[in-house]
Amino acid sequence: MITGHLGIAAAAHSTRRDSAFVWLVVAAMAPDVVDGVFVVARSCNPNGLYSHTVPAAALIAAIVGAMAFLTTGQRATGLLCAVLVLAHLPPDFITGHKLFWPGGEIVGLRLYDRPVLDFLLESVIVAVGWWMMRRREWTPRWATGTAALVSLLALQTAADIVGALRGGMKPSVCAEASARADVPAATAVRVTRD
User: Fold this and answer.
1) Which H/E stretch holds residue 21?
2) Rounded distance, CA 46 to CA 99, Å?
3) Spatial separation of the C-alpha atoms in residues 92 and 85, rounded to whole Å
4) Cα(25)–Cα(129) distance, integer angstroms
5) 3-state secondary structure at position 52
6) Residue 183: predicted pLDDT
């Protein structure tokens, strides 16, 4: 799930006036941010092992929840952040195909393979979260304007189109790492044969 996580963060913020929306957004996306760090560092995170398994998400939830509480001084923000990190996993089961327990099976309904259905599901979640947050007077104007909703729907459209064209929604360094590992082995074989 891509923008749907942001819709979930918006819905969570609409329930508590004493929550910091920006921190909720960070928490809702935290496992994907960890994925991104692995990609930028050019390190393999096989099937979300270090970001999307239950133990990894629990650790990320504790860290993000504590950081949010210490930064804002709001218990509600800290607790909601921890819950949102853990709540990242069930929607990803619907859209993706990942490892949710170390050593377990790779599971998921793979809605990413059906970009139109993925777009419809995520758009509904985004629109509902945006609408819930828009109804509250304490929510930030920049997040409740029509431009915010249109931007998120455009982002989801682009993500689904790019994902469909590339054969996958998110980049992975694991395939590159295994290809690099194969090259030296093939070179070594050639050297011994010559």
Assistant:
1) helix 21-40
2) 8
3) 12
4) 12
5) coil
6) 44
What size, in residues, is the chain? 194
Q: Can you state the angle between helices 54-72 and 21-40, rounded to 10 degrees?
A: 130
With a cut of 70, list the residues of the chain below it in pLDDT. Answer: 168-173, 175-194
CB proximity list for 191: less than 8 A, separation 6 or greater:
none
DSSP helix/strand/coil, 74:
coil
Which of 89, 38, 81, 77 lies closest to 62, judged by CA? Answer: 81
Buried-exposed string 118-146: b where 16+ CB fall within 10 A, e elsewhere: bbebbbebbebbbebbbeeeebeeebbee
Structure tokens of 73? 């001084």
Determine the pLDDT at residue 150. 97
Rounded to whole angstroms, the Cα distance separating 40 from 179 reads: 18
- Which tokens is 193 given? 């044969």
Q: What is the pLDDT of residue 175?
A: 58
| Joined tokens for residue 29 | 């996306």
Measured CA to CA, the distance from residue 21 to residue 154 in angstroms comes to 21
3-state secondary structure of 98: strand
Residue 75's alpha-carbon distances to 42, 66, 71, 170, in angstroms, are 36, 9, 11, 33
